[in-house]
Ferrous iron transport protein A (Pelomonas dachongensis), 84 residues
Amino acid sequence: MSEPLPSSLAAAPPGLALTVLQVSAPAHAPEWASWLSDLGFLPGEAVRVLRRGSFSDGNLVVRVGQSTFALRHAEARCIDVTLR
């Protein structure tokens, strides 16, 4: 049986080629949406998880476009993705 497709970047396994669908923010941090968009997490942009921290809610190293960033799990949950 195949694994379910990730709905957010936080759920994506390393190496999977994805596309950003949308960026949203939690109620307690509405500024995250514009901050993530400023970093390049925009609808239609290519993205992939390069590495995951050792804990399930740890940091992720992600590539969006030609840039590489470390995101907290909570921030990565704000980025909805689909397969590229």
Remarks:
- The radius of gyration is 12 Å.
- The first strand starts at residue 18 and ends at 23.
- The chain has one domain: 9-83.
- The mean pLDDT is 92.
